[in-house]
Structure formats: C-alpha cells, structure tokens
Amino acid sequence: MTARWFEDGRLHLGLGIEDTFVPQSRPGERAIDEYELTEHYERFADDFALAAGVGAEFLRWGVPWYRVAPAPGRWDWDWTDRAVDAQLAAGLRPVIDLLHYGTPLWLDAQFADADYPHHVEEYAARFGERYRDRVFDYTPVNEPVIHALFSGEYGYWPPYLTGASGFAAIAANLARGFVRTQRVLADRVGASATFVHVDAAMSFVGDDVAPEHREEAERLRHQVHLVEDLVTGRVDAAHPLLDRVAPAIPDVELQWFRDNAVQPDIMGVNYYPRHSTELFEAGVHHGGGFADPRPSVDRGAEGLREALVSFAARYGAPVMVTETCVTGSVGERIAWLGESLGLVERLREEGEAIVGYTWWPLFDMYEWTWRHSDRPRADHLLSMGLHDLVESPDGLRRSANPVADAFREHARRLACASTRD
User: Fold this and answer.
1) Strand pairing partners for 396?
2) 3-class SS at 215?
3) Distances, alpha carbon 31 to alpha carbons 21, 22, 322, 371, in Å
4) Is 188's pLDDT higher than 90?
5) What pTM was computed for the model?
6) What is d(CA 141, CA 226) in angstroms, rounded to the nearest whole number?
7) Of 315, 312, 324, nearest in space to 228 by CA
8) 3-class SS of residue 142
C-alpha cells in the first residue's frame, strides 16, 4: 500500500484562510461571515494563487455550510465547486474544514438541536460523494472546544447556552455529529480519506497563587479535551469530567461513543502565543472569552512545545501545527514564524512525529468583535497575514508584505532539504 502524503517523512508547509461563519443575527449582533468580510467569495481564485505563490503545499479552507444548504433538502454547490477546482488548479492540497462554526439558518437550535448530528452527517455525506475523486483530507469540526465555549458556556454565539452544563450539552452534540461525520466520510471517500482533528491548545496558569480558582482551572484543563476524548472513545468511568457530562450523555450513549470511536490520522494543534494561555488572578473573577476575558500570558515557543508534545502523547497520532501566528507588526510576525517553525524542526529532530506547519491566515482577517459592533470592518482589522488587506475603490486589495517573503524562503529551504534527503 502506498504511504499517505503525511507519512513521507517530510515537514509539510501550509496556510489557512480564516473561515468563521456565524450567520445568525439578533438585535445588537450582526451575522459574521469572514469570506464576505474579506471578499474571498469574489477573489477566491486569486487568493489560492497567492497561497501557491509563496510555496504552500496545502490549504486549510472551510465550506460555508449555511450557503451550501440554504433550506432543508436544498443544496447549492455552485460556488464550492468553483472554489475547490481553483484550489486544485493552483496546485494546492485542500484540507477541508467542514465545520468552522455556524449552522444553517433554518436549524432552529443550532448546535443544541436534537437533529443537528443527522443534518451535519447528511452534509458530510453529500460533500464526500461530490468530491471523493479529488478531495481527501478533512477536519470534521475545527476547534470543538471553542464551539462549546462560545455557544455553550459563554452564551456569545447561538444557541446562547451558559455555564458548565451548557458547555457539556454543546460538547455532547458536537461529538455526536463529529463521529457521524467522520464515519460517513470514511464510507464515501474510502481508504484515501485522511482525518485531521483540530483543537485549540488552551492552557490555564495562576491558580497556584489564586487558590480560589483551582477547581475551576482543573475543570477547564480537562474540558479542553472533552470533545476529542468523546469521539476517540476515551470517556469512561475514570474520566475526570464524567460527573459533568453525565446529565448530557447517558451511560448507554457513552458506550455508543466507545463502540463507534473515530481516531485522528493527524492531531492538529491551534496555538497562538499571545492568547492560548489564560491567567487566573487572586481575587479576580472573569467569565472568559472576549466579553469578560481573563488576562493572557505569552508563553512563546515553550507553550507551543508543551501543546504539541501533550497532544501527541494523549492521542497517539502524528501532530501538525494547524494554526499559529501573532497579531502584530511585520517584524513580530517574521520573528514568530522563524521561532515557531524552528521549534517544530527541533522537535522532529528529537523524534516527535510532527508532519505539518500552518501559518494562519494567508491574509489579514477581521476580529470576531465585529459581530457585536456597529463600526465599519476597517475598525476590526487584525494584522496577522502574509498579505495586508487594503481598502481601495475596487474593494479589498491583497498586498504582500515581508512575512510572505519570509514564508517563501522557509518553503524553499524545506523543499531543498527534502530533495537532498
């Protein structure tokens, strides 16, 4: 049997395009669609050419489910067909985010809807059937912990549940859909399918000097892994969160998860050095998230090392950096690109099975606070990419900055190294 692409011993370099979709709105909250905000719907072919032009081998890229399924039983693949074909024509390997937040507008309770797992399974089945001859790499759910926090604990995104019980309810339903998605894709796409599970590398520090937060910190540390633990069949009587998930998942269903467990071919880790570690402070209580955030601690490459090694050990699969960057000046971005990629290469030399590195995103994006604002998009621009988004009379112009040059040089260096090997 021919080895799959990530088993060739090389380090593969890729990019992502920010693809958050939360199409529901209510008074004081706008729908958010990053493809619309960044004008990717109109400029997709040019965007893919930019990614290929700096040496990316793969592209993490999401599908706007709410547009593909505008009404129950109605499917519109026109734009997605053109976008997938354009990626392949550019020489990129698509790694498809089937779910990067957001459900169709007609799904009344969104991620809490009893029929959500069946609807997302049908969506996955139809995608797999349609693209099975040319798309092979899938992320069933991007960052399920963030889904469950924003939709289930913080009450920021639909269906606006709150508290630890809300988190457990959303995590459970996400996990049901996750399992069904992967199993149906494996059936439709066949042995060539590769599954890249992706979650956020969240960590929490400071509870040693803020003892009143120790119990909460312990819950959060385990909660980060809850969906992945469910789908991989790891939630049993010894799991530290069993008492919290029991109301949302009866014993018979926990057994269903163990009997129907799905595993990652690659475990993806999303790590942002300035945001992925939250600090507990003595005498200060925060709800978490952007409405009431805890302070963050920049742990730099140390935090990335910890995340990659711990995810690899926990799930026993090769790992990939599936998102990383810093929001800052060009110089700061270039420095983090070199530092983080250098760490990955050192870890590989030490024997860690790290198969890929993804800078996120290809071009700038707009902060999620745009949803809760009435200000223009320019006020929410995040400088993160290899290309700046520049307002012009013709729309958003993509302007390459020196981070693109640095990425291209790393891509050339890695390609030369693989040729020598």
Assistant:
1) 391
2) helix
3) 8, 6, 26, 6
4) yes
5) 0.96
6) 13
7) 315
8) strand
